[in-house]
Amino acid sequence: MDRASPRIDTAKADAHLLLMNPEIKPHHSGHKLSAFPVACWFLALMAFVQLLVAGMALATRFEESRVVRVVEKEVP
Questions:
Q1: Residue whose C-alpha is closest to residue 61's, from 69, 53, 51, 49
Q2: What separation in angstroms does the CA of 46 have from each of 3, 19, 33, 67?
Q3: Which of 40, 31, 7, 38 minimizes the C-alpha distance to 21?
Q4: Tag placement on the chain: N or C end, fewer CB within 10 Å?
């Protein structure tokens, strides 16, 4: 006897056995990616782009502050 208790609902036994038995592999027609990982990757990409934009803005501001300004004064 391989089970501790007899099975009561024998009508839909296949659906339950797929979840309980790791040796039975469910048949998947294709890999479906859920929305949550896609949203997480999209947010991570947007955060990376914002970091790049902020870095470029700071670099441009820093370069503008280092520009040498020449002021010519005429001495009478």
A1: 53
A2: 52, 37, 20, 32
A3: 7
A4: C
**pLDDT value at residue 66:** 72
Read off the pLDDT of residues 2-44 as tens digits, 9 standing for 90 and up: 556 666 655 555 555 556 666 666 566 566 778 999 999 999 9
Judged against a pLDDT cut of 60, whether residue 56 lies above it is answered with yes
The position carrying tokens 């469910």 is: 26
49 or 74: which leads in pLDDT = 49
CA 25, CA 18: separation in Å to the nearest integer?
7
**CB-based contacts of 16: which residues, under 8 Å, 6+ apart?**
9
